[in-house]
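User: Hi! I have a protein structure encoded as tokens and I'd like to know what sequence might fold into it. I'm fairly new to this, so please keep things simple.
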């Protein structure tokens, strides 16, 4: 089963970017996250939403992105 939430390090690995870049995206609001008991967590849906936004900004369709 796929996790519902990812730590920033794991989200970075899935997105293929650095952990620092993930925190920058969180700070700017481009990547949604929550903070629970001192832990920063990125919901799985937020990763998908961010990827779709990147594709849209690049003008890619689903077929082209695959």
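Assistant: Happy to help. Inverse folding works backwards from shape to sequence: for each of the 66 positions I chose a residue that suits the local structure. Here it is:
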């Amino acid at each position: 089963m796929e996790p519902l939430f990812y730590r920033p390090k794991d989200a970075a690995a899935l997105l293929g970017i650095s952990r620092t870049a993930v925190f920058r995206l969180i700070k700017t609001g481009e990547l949604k996250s929550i903070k629970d008991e001192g832990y920063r967590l990125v919901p799985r849906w937020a990763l998908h939403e961010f990827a779709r936004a990147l594709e849209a900004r690049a003008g890619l369709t689903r077929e082209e992105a695959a």
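A useful reference point when you look it over: The chain is about 55% helix and 15% strand. Feel free to ask if any position seems puzzling.
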